[in-house]
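Fig. S4 source data, part A: sequence.
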Amino acid sequence: MNLIVNADRNWAIGKDNKLLVRIPSDMKFFRSMTTGNVVVMGRRTLESFPGGQPLKDRVNIVLSSRPDYQVKGAVVVHSQEELMEELGRYPDKEIYVIGGESVYRSLLPLCTVAHVTKVDHAYEADTFFPNLDELPDWELTGESDEQTYFDLEYRFLRYERRG
């Protein structure tokens, strides 16, 4: 399984259920990686999308603890067990975990590749991604040249689980 995330220098990923920054090339990268694949997210992540609608041209799987929660165009699961059963229908390489914090934390142990857009700025935030540089079972295996969007510098990083 893969995950894809945009994080600041402190591994912050959001504030008030919104992204910290929108960088067009990062959005394009996200679309290119996830289109035609499966995206896994929590309910609040889905609700942060325009109109609270599932992403086009992807299988959207939403994890929600609300038993009555349903969304047109998405598969809604209500437990980790139900999620694992649903994910078993797809090849691991086609699955992308896209947030938020609790979904990333619960599925990180099952992921083998992490695509991280790392922004060289510290934002005020209330949600964070685990610091992969401090986790012994993760290794940085790829890094783009530094990119710039207005005055923001960022890189596309690829981490892989060791062993």
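Fig. S4 source data, part B ends here. The CA atoms of residues 119 and 154 lie 4 Å apart.
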